[in-house]
Amino acid sequence: MPIYEYQCKACGHRLEKLQKLSAAPLTDCPACHAAELGRLVSAAGFRLAGGGWYETDFKSGSKKNLAGDSASGGGEGQESKAPAKDGAAA
Protein backbone atom coordinates (compact mmCIF):
# COMPACT_ATOMS: atom_id res chain seq x y z
CA MET A 1 0.00 0.00 0.00
CA PRO A 2 1.40 3.41 -0.90
CA ILE A 3 1.85 6.28 1.52
CA TYR A 4 0.19 9.46 0.22
CA GLU A 5 1.08 13.00 1.29
CA TYR A 6 -1.68 15.61 1.67
CA GLN A 7 -1.76 19.36 2.33
CA CYS A 8 -4.70 21.54 3.28
CA LYS A 9 -5.16 24.57 1.03
CA ALA A 10 -7.00 26.46 3.79
CA CYS A 11 -4.66 26.11 6.80
CA GLY A 12 -1.50 24.55 5.30
CA HIS A 13 -1.62 21.43 7.52
CA ARG A 14 0.37 18.51 6.03
CA LEU A 15 -0.10 14.81 6.71
CA GLU A 16 0.80 11.37 5.37
CA LYS A 17 -1.72 8.57 5.03
CA LEU A 18 -1.22 4.87 4.26
CA GLN A 19 -4.01 3.98 1.81
CA LYS A 20 -4.96 1.31 -0.68
CA LEU A 21 -4.63 2.16 -4.37
CA SER A 22 -8.39 1.78 -4.73
CA ALA A 23 -9.18 4.11 -1.79
CA ALA A 24 -10.70 7.52 -2.53
CA PRO A 25 -8.44 10.52 -1.83
CA LEU A 26 -8.99 12.36 1.45
CA THR A 27 -10.82 15.70 1.20
CA ASP A 28 -11.46 16.88 4.79
CA CYS A 29 -8.57 18.40 6.78
CA PRO A 30 -8.21 16.84 10.26
CA ALA A 31 -6.90 20.16 11.66
CA CYS A 32 -9.42 22.77 10.43
CA HIS A 33 -12.14 20.42 9.07
CA ALA A 34 -12.29 22.29 5.75
CA ALA A 35 -12.85 20.32 2.53
CA GLU A 36 -9.63 21.73 1.06
CA LEU A 37 -7.27 18.75 1.39
CA GLY A 38 -5.27 17.98 -1.73
CA ARG A 39 -2.87 15.15 -2.58
CA LEU A 40 0.73 16.24 -3.16
CA VAL A 41 3.18 14.86 -5.70
CA SER A 42 6.14 13.64 -3.67
CA ALA A 43 8.81 10.98 -3.56
CA ALA A 44 7.47 7.46 -3.79
CA GLY A 45 6.97 5.99 -0.37
CA PHE A 46 6.51 2.25 0.03
CA ARG A 47 6.99 -0.46 2.58
CA LEU A 48 8.56 -3.84 1.80
CA ALA A 49 6.72 -6.65 3.56
CA GLY A 50 7.67 -10.30 3.87
CA GLY A 51 10.93 -12.06 3.06
CA GLY A 52 12.89 -11.42 -0.08
CA TRP A 53 16.18 -10.22 -1.55
CA TYR A 54 16.20 -7.05 0.58
CA GLU A 55 15.89 -9.21 3.69
CA THR A 56 18.50 -11.86 2.90
CA ASP A 57 21.12 -10.51 0.47
CA PHE A 58 24.05 -8.34 1.53
CA LYS A 59 22.86 -8.18 5.15
CA SER A 60 26.37 -8.78 6.52
CA GLY A 61 27.86 -6.08 4.30
CA SER A 62 30.16 -8.48 2.42
CA LYS A 63 29.20 -7.89 -1.18
CA LYS A 64 30.76 -10.54 -3.38
CA ASN A 65 31.14 -10.27 -7.12
CA LEU A 66 30.47 -13.90 -7.98
CA ALA A 67 30.92 -13.36 -11.72
CA GLY A 68 34.32 -11.74 -11.16
CA ASP A 69 35.42 -14.38 -8.64
CA SER A 70 34.56 -17.32 -10.91
CA ALA A 71 36.38 -15.80 -13.89
CA SER A 72 39.62 -15.25 -11.96
CA GLY A 73 39.33 -18.46 -9.91
CA GLY A 74 38.63 -20.67 -12.92
CA GLY A 75 41.89 -19.78 -14.66
CA GLU A 76 44.05 -20.50 -11.63
CA GLY A 77 42.26 -23.75 -10.87
CA GLN A 78 42.84 -25.08 -14.38
CA GLU A 79 46.58 -24.40 -14.26
CA SER A 80 47.09 -26.19 -10.92
CA LYS A 81 45.22 -29.31 -12.12
CA ALA A 82 47.36 -29.76 -15.24
CA PRO A 83 49.31 -33.09 -15.24
CA ALA A 84 53.09 -32.97 -14.96
CA LYS A 85 55.06 -33.32 -18.21
CA ASP A 86 57.08 -36.33 -17.03
CA GLY A 87 53.93 -38.40 -16.41
CA ALA A 88 54.34 -38.52 -12.63
CA ALA A 89 51.29 -37.78 -10.51
CA ALA A 90 51.32 -34.44 -8.77
From TrEMBL:
Signal peptide: none annotated. It comes from the Bacteria. Residues 59-90 are annotated as: Disordered. SMART domains: CxxC_CXXC_SSSS. Transmembrane segments: none annotated. Residues 1-42 form the Putative regulatory protein FmdB zinc ribbon domain. This is Zinc ribbon domain-containing protein.
